[in-house]
Specification:
Strand content: 15-25%
Structural class: alpha+beta
Radius of gyration: 15 Å
Helix content: 25-40%
């Protein structure tokens, strides 16, 4: 059996451990990134390319808030599937699936899966 630290070692190594702060990773079948963002009532803030740019934009977004967590930053991109496309969404320090109706709205008339991990290693799978 692996220890808890070895199960999460890739998080420590990935971009200096940035995802150790917590994240939600979501896949939803058959939606475009814009359809997904519309379903979770996201306000557009422009496009970024690459994880480094995403992290920079997330940090700027969080720093602009008076109270942390008033709003969360989420990125979404298309992932090609065998039979259909999916949208892959990443939210750092957030929880789309635990917010009122977040995953329910995102997966209306389709399928989705979401994994949330807190900085304290609490995990939820929707």
């Amino acid at each position: 059996m692996k220890s808890e630290s070895s199960n999460r070692s890739w998080l420590r190594d990935f971009h200096g451990g940035y995802l150790l702060e917590g994240y939600t990773l979501t896949l939803v079948r058959g939606l475009s990134p814009q359809e997904f963002l519309d379903r979770i009532d996201a306000d557009p803030t422009g496009e970024v390319t690459g994880f480094e740019a995403f992290v920079t934009r997330d940090l700027e977004f969080q720093d602009s808030q008076t109270d942390w967590g008033d709003f969360m930053f989420v990125g979404a991109t298309r992932v090609r599937g065998k039979d259909t496309d999916w949208v892959l969404a990443l939210e750092i320090n957030g929880g789309i699936e635990i917010r009122a109706n977040g995953m329910q709205n995102a997966t209306r008339r389709t399928r989705g899966v979401s994994h949330f991990c807190s900085p304290h290693a609490m995990t939820l799978f929707s």
